[in-house]
Amino acid sequence: MTKRREFSRAVKAEIMLRCKTPTGFRCEMCSAVVQSGEIDHTIAEALIVDKSKKLTAKDGKFLCLPCHQGPDGKTPKDKAAIAKAKRCEAQALGIKRETPRPIQSAPFPASGKTPRIVKTPLKPRELYR
Questions:
Q1: Any bridge partners for residue 72, and if so which?
Q2: Where would I find the H helices in the chain?
Q3: d(Cα 47, Cα 125) in Å, to the nearest integer?
Q4: Contact at 8 Å (CB) between 58 and 42?
Q5: What share of the chain is helix, strand, coil (3-state, %, to 5)?
Q6: What is this structure's pTM?
Q7: d(C-alpha 30, C-alpha 26), whole Å
Q8: Whole-angstrom Cα distance, residue 14 to residue 100?
Q9: Cα angle at 71 between 67 and 73, to 5 degrees?
Q10: CA–CA distance, 10 with 6 (Å, rounded to integer)
């Protein structure tokens, strides 16, 4: 497995210049102007097969934190896509998931102790007049 590729300082600077506005940086997903954010791979790095090519500014985009890390953000969607790709690859290679083995030991014996709280049925509630 090859190491994850990271953006160089020059490529990061190029992406930041592309998103620069007079008041901050524009998120390339929701167009919000924010003071800080994160540079993300356009296509998840785990989904790229040929990792020999160098990363360029086209391979990344500037995202605000909610768009990148939020519950509806890109990172959770990337994780789901990566998991699906791994499942499809395993299926294509004929790799099957291990089925859980049934428990082979005997269950615990019933306790001979009396319960600490004796539960008696409640009496029907009388109506007050």
A1: none
A2: 9-19, 65-69, 74-93
A3: 66
A4: yes
A5: 35, 10, 55
A6: 0.65
A7: 8
A8: 50
A9: 25
A10: 12
User: What is the Cα–Cα distance from 73 to 29, expressed in whole angstroms?
Assistant: 10
- DSSP type of residue 80: H
Give the number of C-alpha atoms closer than 13 A to the C-alpha of residue 82, restricted to the C-beta side.
13
CB atoms within 10 A of CB 42: 11
Residues 6-52 pLDDT 10s: 899 999 999 999 999 999 999 999 999 999 899 999 988 888 888 88
| Measured distance CA(88)–CA(108) in Å, rounded | 41
CA distance 1 to 49: 11
Q: What are φ and ψ of residue 121, in 5° steps?
A: -65, 145
User: Are 48 and 58 a contacting pair, CB within 8 Å?
Assistant: no
